[in-house]
Amino acid sequence: MTLRTRTGRCAAALLTAAVAGGVLTGCQIAGASSLFVSCEGTESRVAELESHAVLGSRPEGAVVPRGFEDLDSGCWEDSGEAHLYADRTYVFPGGRADVIEHYRTAAKQDGWKPSRTAPGSPGANRPEGLCFTLGKGRGAPTLDVYFLTEEILKDEGHRPGPEFASGTGYRVSVGSTADGSTVDCSD
What SS3 class is residue 88? Predict the structure, then answer.
């Protein structure tokens, strides 16, 4: 019995040393990579997000500002999670309420449902933005309509063009997670 106990302690000590060594050297134990989700192989899912008609919908008078002509889409990884997105940026010469009304109507026509957790959802009566979901369950994409500030644009590495001085800048974003887990709209 004593021999087994010592062997168990020895094995435990070796396992501890191996894990600690892996952490210190950046090596990982086989199977540990499954804890992290990457953007690899997500191209078709990003293409699905790009195909949502609401991305091209905009209130009359809204313009695409210089530097934002192309649909911005892709996948980004953060802390072991991968997020898929397709975004359009617009500037509208009117107020936020008109933008919100337009996207409530457009989203409903395309089958999007208001998210109960969204700051701009119908029950909230606040003009910060809108959040919708398309279906329920894992992997359902979200539609996030939010207003841009100069600070947001600068954090993204953009210089606000003259269009932003003459109207309300906002973004329409369809997003999902690469692993199909539930996702909420941005804060």
Answer: strand
